[in-house]
Fold each of these.
Amino acid sequence: MVSEKTLTARIEDLRHRIGVDRAPVAPPHPEVASWRAATADDIDAIHAVAVAVDRIDHPSWTTPRADIADTFDLPHIDPSRDTVLALDAAGEVIAFGSAFLHPARDDALTVHLSGGVLPGLWRRGIGTAVFGWQCARGLEQLSEVAPALPVGADSWTADLKVYAQESNLGHQRLAQARGFTPERWFATMLRDLTAGAPETGLPPDAVARGVRIVEYTHDRDDDVRLARNDAFRDHWGSLPSQPESWAKFVGGEFFRPDLSRLVVDADGAIVAFCLASVIEDDWEALGASHSYIDLIGVVRAHRRQGLAPAVVAATLRAIAAAGLEKAALDVDTDSPTGANALYERLGFVADERSVALVARA
């Protein structure tokens, strides 16, 4: 079971490269009265910090409270070890950080780092302290898991990953100072629906084979999860979606099955999908009512058959019919499927950009 020495050694090398202590201990800071792990009682305080950061980093949308609450109810997250809070002298949360190891074990280990500091306290070293703790905890997680991996797992990848808005140079410099490298850029794209949605439909040959577009129904929840995992297998940084987190997504308050569309073949198998949510709290920030398109995909055996533009257009028509003014989505600008070009052809226009920075073992 401990034949995994090569990966363990690589993780240890990464620890030295990014210069973190073995234990995730936050250093003293003059404006931080105390540090502690987060609990479910801190959800609102963490959300308040996240929203304050969002207003500067990406003012067109804010982190939903439910996204934070969900992290306290997933089996692969231990908030007592995977989170840290910085408190001021009054006991108020002024910064937070997390390091979550993705539960998938498919030839890759990835720890996602996320956090924030109240903007009024930026550039005072608090973010540096939080990020150092995150890196240390992430490496601790990788080190704990690596020895238990199957024989032959020395070829696996292991990494720490953090996302930053392209406009937030301070966030990027913080990660790069620890040895993280920018690897991928993502664009937020918007589609105005006030003048109508595209009429693009399925190609005639697909229709002749019995392929059709249907509205999402919850009896297909796990089928869609499996289709999503197949469609994203060759996408950068993508790991298989797990049943617990998927159930929270499709069963959550924001997901809109009535706006989401599936493409099924003559046997009813899902071959493509376009899933949409509505978060009304973001309407004022964007200045328009809108739906966010969370996921678009085509299973790999059915790519290049004209299914993607048809299912996206069908979802856009549903969003427009619901009276919403815009649709928004995020896309990997180097997607292997050329998705950004597809969305441009459907009338989407690029807006904000973010960057993924990675430290690899």
Amino acid sequence: MAFKVGDLVGDYEVIGTLGAGGIGQVYQVRHAISQRIEAMKVLLSVQTGEEVAERFLREIRVLASLDHPNIAALHNAFRHSDQMIMIMEFVEGVTLRAKLSSGSILMSQSLDYMRQVLSGLSFAHSKGIVHRDIKPSNIMVTRGERIKLLDFGLAFQGLGSDITRTGLILGSLHYMSPEQVMGERVDHRSDIYSVGVTLYQLLTGRAPIDGSSEFAIASGHLKETPPDPATINPNISARLSAIVMKSMAKSPNDRFQTADQFLEELGSVNMDETMTLLPTPAQSRETSGHAPRKPDAAPAPPPAPARSTKTLSGATVLSSVTRELAHYIGPIARVVVNRAAKQACTLDELYSLVSAEVSTDSERKAFMATRQKYSLES
């Protein structure tokens, strides 16, 4: 059930719609007693699916443990009919993604934004929480230039193997660390990589890793070394370039080991306050989150209805296809198959989608021939 302006949800009156995300809707609301304006995030139905409901509950519990000026605060959570409701701080401003799309940003601003992001992450990491989805659309910039981190829906509290869930691939591909792309265990250093990618984009106007397909982007995170930022923007010092490149090291052991280390290095960099960057083109493939905020511009059209993938939900089928595909494209096959399974309704469709990543006609034909081995009932 969607709400409309004027509806009462518990003690909250709906006064506007802020946006929609993958698992629910976000509204602007006013508390009936305090009259405080807040953001109401709604999981549209607890019947949406166990994994989605679990993610929503996890976000509630993670945010309940975080009280920091650079993290959007949770005010309340409750159930309303068959819906779960999260009441959050209303953050008035624009996303960093919108600022990137609108033109050049002062270099001093870029560094200040990332220092604030790292400050918020340092606090979260001290609580054992890894965000796992740091990207420009999950970073809000208020009118007072205060940064607010949003969308802890992928975060995990605790760093044990039972919590990090090896093999689960979640996040936004342009900003994912190599270990996250591979579905391996991640820790706080994965967030450091994502901050480095975001800073690189702020300083150069482009993503450090890009490609014509998800496979190309995922493979780039694993194998490609991005150009030094100073070769793209000559206003960047060699020292700042080195800091950015270290944050994006392929191995977690070669990155800054804590957000505080990264923050300390950025804090020692001085920049001319009037120095602007290169024009910053919009990042076309990075998907926006469902954060509590005012729309950055004209509202995007609603996402297309999700296609059913029930026939492809069996782990045995997906692991079999992954195993076959890995003969031709290597371990990245796991990423390709998992993402394609979200779009395909049948095994034939899945094979068709993933076969596009096989480089030669002969190998593609050989891979397609393995289809007959498997049935959805296996």
Amino acid sequence: MTTDEFQERQRVPRLRLRVTPAAESVLRSGHPWLFADSIREQNRAGQVGELAVIYDRKDRFLATGLFDPDSPIRVRLLHVGKPRAIDHNWWAERLTQALDAREGLFDVQTTGFRWINGESDGWPGLVLDRYDRTLVLKLYSAAWLPRLDEIAELITGRLRPERIVLRLSRNIQTLAQQQFGKADGEILNGPPLDGPVTFLETGLRFEADVLHGQKTGFFLDQRENRRLVESLARGRDVLNAFSFSGGFSLYAARGGARSVTDLDLSAHALAGAKRNVALNSANACAASCRHEFVQANAFVWLNQEPGRMFDLVILDPPSLAKREIERPGAIRAYGRLASSGIEHLKSGGILVACSCSAHVTAAEFFEAVRRSTLNAGRTFEELRTTRHAPDHPATFKEAAYLKAIYLRV
């Protein structure tokens, strides 16, 4: 269904909203979300995915966005400023902008990266990732479902992938199935899949479970940190805690690490890490590095194996604060985790601590790690801090989740 067809189907007046003065200021500043409690007037009940037009207190056009009656984020903004038609040409222009922003970032040695990063690329609640010839389109908002066919057709026409896989956030899967007949892991077009797809990242081969894996099948956002770890790994014994499918480990091995230990609670994740090692057996450095795989709770293992010492410790846990109320506890947990990691570092060793918790700011996270290092009685040299990769831009506060700090202890 095209945008025009969708609006025609409505056969009702355009959905018009007026918002609080505070919300007006926030929207004009560029924030892409309008929350339900900021709406002070609405001309009728809205349907999921229809275009809502927002007016200011003087009845002047303010913005246009996708409406979702069941979400606290009631409108995800598409356009702010002077009125513009949101039609096929508009979507095509927006896609071109996202693709152009990645021009020159990657060569033929990297065939896995993000084409569209949601709100920060002007596609609120939508992500598009590339895994070689397979694209994964992930929706975090039900507001995209009525336009899914149009968007998929636009992407296919522009990028010519072998297939497009649909991934859906858990909170919209039931609605997607019941109202639109769409399921998580469904192939929108192209041949079926009977397993993971493989892709290149800086010349290393990885598999991605695009049908059922976390995120869209792989943690593409940590690419730049993996490259940095490779540059630090030569001659070192490396611990990769919360290793998942072994991305950091393979980069460390190629970088000349003496040994790499993958530590993860999931047997499934460790099996994937072993397959990724096998995929890179032709690389001399990766093949010569000694790989160890340990299935254990990383929080527990780090406290129960005091004799295991390493030259490089990587701590990349899952989000420890998925809600704002969990933020204080997460900051303390990051500090305790850093303390545990430091206990396994030889003198002159390097700690790489990462956080993907949007509710914990970079300043709070970095301070927690630094404080833990000092409290452990260790002096340190701060090598660097990092944030988002260039294909994962973060243009507003809530989008800024990824951060890492490198300390030589």
